[in-house]
Design goal:
There is one protein chain. A hairpin with a 2-residue loop joins β3 and β4. A five-stranded mixed β-sheet has the order 2-1-5-3-4. It is built from two helices and five strands; from the N terminus they run βαβαβββ. By secondary structure, it is an alpha+beta fold. Helix content is 20%, strand content 30%.
């Protein structure tokens, strides 16, 4: 039995921190998304579920597989995406 019903789909793991973790009440989300999706489109997806996160868009950094990534970076099957909001303290 095939893993995907649509061959244009990939699976990614989203790691959530700080405000994202609080809003979703979890530290990790698994998504099946269209091949060709960018890391910033993951943010778009989360905002559709939790519109209050929109205010964090310009402050959030992205990482893919533990490396910082630009918002336009394309995702691949199996990638681990981290959304990194600003943190306070020092």
């Amino acid at each position: 039995m095939p893993m995907f019903t649509n061959p244009n789909q990939i699976q990614v793991k989203i790691k959530l921190f700080a405000i994202f973790q609080e809003v979703f009440a979890t530290d990790e989300i698994h998504l099946e998304i269209e091949s060709g999706t960018t890391v910033s489109q993951i943010f778009d997806h989360l905002v559709t579920q939790q519109p209050s996160l929109e205010k964090w868009r310009s402050l959030t950094r992205y990482a893919i597989n533990l490396n910082f990534a630009e918002p336009h970076t394309l995702l691949n099957h199996g990638d681990e995406v981290a959304l990194l909001p600003p943190v306070s303290g020092g």
